[in-house]
Amino acid sequence: MFPHHREREQPIFSTRAHVFQIDPTTKRNWIPASKHAVTVSFFYDANRNVYRIISVGGTKAIINCTVTPSMTFTKTSQKFGQWADSRANTVYGLGFATEQQLHQFSEKFKEVKDAARLAREKSQDKELANTALTIAAPQDLSDELQSPPVMCVNGPEDKLFRSQSADITLSSEKERIKKMLSEGSICELNLEAELFTLQDSNTKLVAALHEANANVEQWKKQLAAYQGETERLREQVADLEAHVGQGPSDLLKDELTQSLEELEALLKAKDEEIHILQSKKADYHEMEHDRDEAIRRLRELEMRNSELERRIQNTEQNLSNSLEDRDRMDSEIQRAIEILDIKIFDLNDLRQSMVKLIDK
Fold first, then answer.
1. Which residue ranges does the record assign to the WH1 domain (predicted)?
2. What are the structural domains, with CATH classification, of the chain?
3. 282 or 69, which is more confident
4. Which terminus of the chain has a smaller tally of CB atoms within 10 A, N or C?
5. How far apart are CA 72 and CA 70, in angstroms?
6. Under 8 Å CB-to-CB from 112, ≥6 apart: which residues?
7. In percent, how much of the chain has pLDDT > 70?
8. Does the pLDDT value for residue 149 go beyond 50?
9. Which residues contact 80 (CB under 8 A, 6 or more apart)?
């Protein structure tokens, strides 16, 4: 008997990118998961009807993420994007070489997420159809489960109003702090991604420059050898003209002239290559300037983050003081309510006594 054929996961889209993971301690900085760009692929498992994002670096899996309908891929810069994986309790970041690659990955992420959503809806519909016959009719809620009536006790309205105002102020302050933190984190992530791209380009330019310098030295040696050969040929031509009197034969003269022309053309080509390499050096210096500018911007952002942290600490202190004030007002209101309850009870007792006296 032949074994049953089992379909395996099939790749549906692949690209190359630099993979990062968020720092689990700070939740702000990116940690490179690979030294170089690796292949990132979408896989589809037909048996389980699920989609996964997988990337392997060397002998270990860098990304092994199951796509769910709740995931969202966010573009934080022109060549960098990120998404959160709640199952792995981490955030993945991808740095692409071009903006087009980032756009293609983002579109494919949306398609896969929609497909995962449809697969989940179909699975839920099947489960509902299977369990529909076993579900009993809902019973009426008893009176014991109903919410008890709310009793209103007249108290100092000015204190209640101040408590509600404090709650509104605290809520708005919390929203403002969250917005400040999100803006600072996004700017820092964008600058770190741009700095990583500049460092990668700088490394490539340095390697190309070293290779070009080695080639320049080799070409200089060849140029010196060609110049020596040219001088030697010219000396031979002069010797032949001196010995023969009327000059060398036309055939020998043509051969020497052709050799000289070839050597001059080769010298010219080498000079052009040297000029090209010198222009590449200028590009390298410009890239260094861009890198220094990115580092300066990153330092400024760190200073801004320090200032934001200081302001957040002050705001947290104010928030703590406001909470203490609110708790104190709540305790005062509670004491006032208790006193009012006692007074009401005494008045009720007095009313009953007066009714008894009137009846007598």
1. 4-116
2. 11-125 (2.30.29.30)
3. 69
4. N
5. 7
6. 12, 42, 51, 67
7. 74
8. no
9. 93, 94, 95, 96, 102, 189, 190, 193
